[in-house]
Amino acid sequence: MSDYHFHWVMALRDLPSLLQGAVVTLQLTILSMIIGVGVSVPLAVMRWQGRGVWSGVAGAWVDVARNTPVLLQVYAVYFGLGAYGFNISSYAATLLAISFNNIGYLIEIFRGGLATVPRYQYISGRSLGMSATQAYAYIVWPQLLRIVFYSVMTQMIWAMLNTSLGLLIGLRELAGAAEQAQSVNYRTLETFAMAALLYYLMAKLLILGAELLYARLYGRR
Amino acid sequence: MIEIRNVRKSFGETMILNGISLDVHQGELLCLIGGSGSGKSTLLQCINGLEPIQGGEILVDGVDICSKSVSINHLRRKVGMVFQQYEAFPHLTALENVALAPRVVAKVPRREALANAHRHLTHVGLGDKASFYPRNLSGGQQQRLAIARALAMEPRYMLFDEVTSALDPELVAEVLDTMRTLRREGMTMVVVTHDMDFVRESADRVAFLSAGEICEIGSVKQVMMNPQTEIVQKFLGRRSSS
Ligand SMILES: Nc1ncnc2c1ncn2[C@@H]1O[C@H](COP(=O)(O)OP(=O)(O)OP(=O)(O)O)[C@@H](O)[C@H]1O
Ligand SMILES: [Mg+2]
User: Fold this and answer.
1) Which of A135, B142, B181, B215 could form a disulfide with B86, with the two C-beta atoms 3.0–4.6 Å apart?
2) Over the stretch A69-94, which tens digit does the pLDDT of each residue have?
């Protein structure tokens, strides 16, 4: 049998600092998704129309973001920008890197969704006098969001889990806080188990929040 | 009045409209007929500014729709269009389908837009279906919804592109009835159709398109009863014998 003895009470003393880290993780996840959706939607539209410089930019972005390790994306932002004299905090570097990664995946998700909304939906909107932006915003986008909702949720959870890479550049998000706590309390397994449970609960919380937000904006799915 | 002057349209190398000239007079119902691929849908989409043209001009109430100084979105509000494909917005109820464009394009306040939408739904016989989603409406009801949605922008002209072609036969009549009602009310309409009975009964004038050109244009009597060109004779002969 194992001779590891669990001492939950000792580990639980570090719960407050883990919760502080969890707040950072949540913030990074939500912000990186807002940035991710905001940037990827116009790029997805341009990539879908398949013309021009921006379509090429979107294509390259997808290519790089999805074919390199997220860890290296985090390093690239933190050390890369640092090398050019832009010293940014580990928080900002993690946020930028995770957003970069989100954008790459979300462009492909939205582009795939765009292909499933019949072209006549858009044309009808235009024929009613809507501008291209209005037709996308009021007609294509709500239908698209319904279709890609779960893919976007998966991406959001992926983003949340990836924020733990911030630990490697000294960020005290949830994984970083757990790492720090266990190095002092020596309750390694208990501390990381608590962190894992918190990640799990946050994932559920984020999906619930997104579902409520969706229902609020667009009615039932 | 819509004035179409020597309009040319090509997709890449292929010429689709080869110098079309045509006037649509106020209050008339003009039917466009012709074989498949002759350019009827393309012509309607050009009139509505949905497809750019490569030559000639299109004037709506004297305004050139291609001129850089006019907003095409503004012009489209004058010209409503209904397509063959059912294109009701599936994420919105019938009422919201009709109220959407007035709200976002014409900036009509929400309550007023919804009240107007209800009036337009009632007009096409869908007053009791306001809260239905398109998936719970029949094809004929969806097409009438599309008509109501176009009418909600209070257009001066309506373009119909084979709006009954995708419908089950028993649903065709209700849509045609709605169009006849509009005609009685004085709406100016351009109707692309393969339904020669509708043309004979309802059209003021008929234009026959072939290979991107107008072969014949005139009253129903002239074109339908006494066609001058062989190609129209053949087309009509094939229809009446089938
Ligand atoms: N977006 C497009 N790109 C290239 N060619 C097109 C496009 N749209 C239409 N065409 C071509 O233009 C020609 C005219 O098409 P159009 O749809 O206007 O014909 P139509 O008279 O409406 O035919 P139908 O009775 O079958 O609806 C066809 O040969 C068609 O293949
Ligand atoms: Mg057609």
Assistant:
1) B142
2) 999 999 999 999 988 988 899 999 99
Instruction: Return the ∠ at Cα A128 (arms to A126 and A134), rounded to 5°.
Output: 50
Domain ranges for chain B: 2-241
Q: Is residue A98 part of a domain?
A: yes
Residue with tokens 């832009």: A86
Question: Searching chain A, which residue's CA lies closest to the CA of residue B151?
Answer: A128
Residues from chain A that touch B148, judged by Cβ atoms under 8 A, are none
Is the CB of B40 inside a 6 Å radius of any atom of ligand 1? yes
Closest CA to B82 of B124, B131, B136, B24: B124
Q: Which CATH architecture has domain B2-241?
A: 3-Layer(aba) Sandwich (3.40)
B63-64, strands of its sheet edge to edge: B14-24, B2-11, B55-60, B63-64
For residue B242, the model assigns a pLDDT of 47
- Give the whole-angstrom CA distance, residue B159 versus residue B167: 18
Has residue A2 got a pLDDT over 80?
no
Please check whether residue A1 lies inside any domain of the structure. no
- C-alpha of A34 from chain center: 8
Number of structural domains chain A divides into: 1
Judging contacts by C-beta atoms under 8 Å, the chain A residues touching residue B80 are: 127-128
Residue type, position A77, single letter: V
> What global pTM score does this model have?
0.83
Can you give the residue range of the structural domain that contains A143? 8-218
Strands B205-210 and B213-219: antiparallel
Find the chain A residues whose C-beta atoms sit closer than 8 A to any C-beta of B.
118, 120-121, 123-131, 134, 138-139, 142-143, 146, 218-219
Domain presence at residue A166: yes
